[in-house]
UniProtKB/TrEMBL annotation:
Pfam families according to UniProt: Glycos_transf_2
Domain Glycosyltransferase 2-like stretches: 9-171
InterPro entries noted in UniProt: Glyco_trans_2-like (IPR001173), Glycosyltransferase_2 (IPR050256), Nucleotide-diphossugar_trans (IPR029044)
Record protein name field: Glycosyltransferase family 2 protein
Amino acid sequence: MINTKKIVVVLPAYNASSTLKKTYNEIPFDIVDAVVLVDDNSTDETLQEARNLGIKYILKHDKNKGYGANQKSCYKKALALGGDIVIMLHPDYQYTPKLIHSMAYLIANNVYPVVMGSRILGKGALRGGMPMYKYVANRFLTLFQNIIIGQKLSEYHTGFRAFSKEVLETLTLEHNSDDFIFDNQMICQIFNKGFEIAEITCPTTYSSESSSINFKRSVTYGVGVLIVSVQYFLHKRKVKLSHIFK
């Protein structure tokens, strides 16, 4: 805990057996009270590895529901456990758990209600091996989103995020997609409710074991990002209201 606030780390997992142990072992249990792993019907030994590590709260989807659906299960369980600060960490070791201290303290001390680990601040992304086409796409999409949404984030696409209980209880996450675009819908919902987002520099590790979507799905994701941004723009101006921002 920090300032009597319970901290829960959630791991949305899919085929993460080879990196789960390394990720889990770097979680700072001096402040983290509980870890929740949701397995999205992996085809490898993720579930068994989680049990071997002694993770107490393990959920398994009976079928592969998607990245967004996995997060929905993660947050629901974290809140049910009484989490005051919930940190979403990918178990593929692309992001270092060593930043959990910094992210959690910003929320625990009521500085910001949401904190994201940015791969773009500094040179963490390219130094860590992010493919150039993904880096360029990230920069283009982020520029477009900042203009349309009216914010100044360094990136909207990181998978390392921390939330206060108030934020998670306020957002209508069940209205969001079960796919990868969930992340961007969630950010727009956060801004729509008037919450601020802080960012901290996050070193990144890309390897053959890191989870990633192929080029075709990346294009689909990119188009989805543009659509969500425009939906938010139209909703805020009351031109066309969207159900995900209610």
